[in-house]
Amino acid sequence: MKRRYFGTDGIRGTVGKTPITPDFVLRLGYAAGIVLAANAPASGRPTVLIGKDTRVSGYMLEAALEAGFAAAGVDTMLAGPMPTAAVAYLTRALRLNAGVVISASHNPYQDNGIKFFSADGNKLADRIEADIERQLDEPMQCVASEELGKARRLDDAAGRYIEFCKSTFPNEYDLRGLKLVIDCAHGAAYHIAPHVFHELGAEVIAIGNQPNGFNINDGYGATAPDNLVRAVQAHRADLGIALDGDADRLQVVDGNGRLFNGDELLYVLAKDRLRQGEVSGVVGTVMTNMAIELALQSLGVQFVRAKVGDRYVLEQLRTRGWLLGAESSGHILCLDKHTTGDGIISALQVLAALKRAQQPLARLLDGVDLFPQHMINVRVPAGYDWQANASLQSECSQIERELAGAGRILIRASGTEPVLRVMVEAHQADIATQCAERLANTVQSEVSG
């Protein structure tokens, strides 16, 4: 069945435009409630946890979801502003039937989205999402009054999650003596992340922790780390930690103002795990820098690339029985700590690695120099089949021979616009630029000709 609403990370769009409208979300809550009730154990009323980030539209969408679930006879527990990974944890810990997050992650406040977690804290199976989409085609009804769902607030959701995050940090270590700047992106972790690091002993300077409904991800957080770099240097902090709007992404800044992305942090974590025992393998994406792949191979660690999207990284990890994966953007998966990507827990794993190594973060990456990457977006006709372009295939083969294993080509169609993304990695920036331009010109020549 072709998906109409669910993407790789739930349903997302601009508020006020289908599908992120109150009437659609009401029907979505009802459809999801009917499907979840059908898959729930026979005893007891199904219960769903709803969390959200700090967007002003969260109030409207939360109310619509709650009403839809109630009409389907499903109880709801409202957690308020809560990181995506917190909803996954609390759903599992409280033995609920499902969790729902109202968030558009790193997008601006004008967007919002809905994503679901199963009872075990994992993303919903494709089969369940397909069932929900089918149910959306059915007329919305309402159970009898005596069967309507009820809603209640979940007391101390933040406190429960803070304790869970702290439990993933080794008992033999603490963060005393460290000065940390924590950038919450004016998002869901604003009232959680600073407490986690403070309660483990760090001196914490919090920024991006004054949400007003409109400033999520605006100049702060993992997608806009310049303010974090400046704050780390101004406060002479040891490290800065940047999360995004729903706190599932992580970027780290050291005291010298150097920014470390998801690729580099993945390598640091893999190297740390290798010191403690065997690492069967690590999953990145097609965007993971080639230098990381070569560095992991030099450690004897197998590396596999997944499609872009933490959903696909997770699929590869589960298929192979591995524990560690990441995207360059900072989605890091440590499956021995949590079922989903979690910026706070990932940061704690990086800090634990630093404690064990007793070395600065940059030192742990000695000898790992990221390859320069050059990307060009080429406008193409809708549905353009770049793989059928014989001239492009010939030019790719020629460039691959020239790179001789010291670089790579990545060409992929955008999933949201008629654009072909042409990227080349090479040891030298000028080579990457020249090769990318050659490929882009080859595409443009066919499209314009």
Automatic annotation (TrEMBL):
Function: Catalyzes the conversion of glucosamine-6-phosphate to glucosamine-1-phosphate.
Any one of the GO CC terms: cytosol
Similarity annotation: Belongs to the phosphohexose mutase family.
UniProt xrefs under Gene3D superfamilies: Alpha-D-Glucose-1,6-Bisphosphate, subunit A, domain 3, Alpha-D-phosphohexomutase, C-terminal domain
This protein's UniProt keywords: Isomerase, Magnesium, Metal-binding, Phosphoprotein
Cofactor binding, per record: Binds 1 Mg(2+) ion per subunit.
Transmembrane segments: none
Modification note: Activated by phosphorylation.
Cofactor(s) listed in the protein's UniProt record: Mg(2+)
Superkingdom to which the source organism belongs: Bacteria
Keyword Isomerase appears in the UniProt entry: yes
GO biological process, one term: peptidoglycan biosynthetic process
Keyword Chaperone applies: no
Binding site for Mg(2+): S105, D244, D246, D248
Annotated catalytic residues: S105
Residues with the Phosphoserine modification: S105
Alpha-D-phosphohexomutase C-terminal domain residues: 375-441
Molecular function as annotated in GO: magnesium ion binding; phosphoglucosamine mutase activity; phosphomannomutase activity
UniProt feature coiled coil, ranges: none
Organism: Pandoraea thiooxydans
EC number(s) reported in the record: 5.4.2.10
Catalytic reaction equation(s): alpha-D-glucosamine 1-phosphate = D-glucosamine 6-phosphate
Domain Alpha-D-phosphohexomutase alpha/beta/alpha span(s) in chain numbering: 3-138, 160-257, 261-366
Protein name in UniProt: Phosphoglucosamine mutase
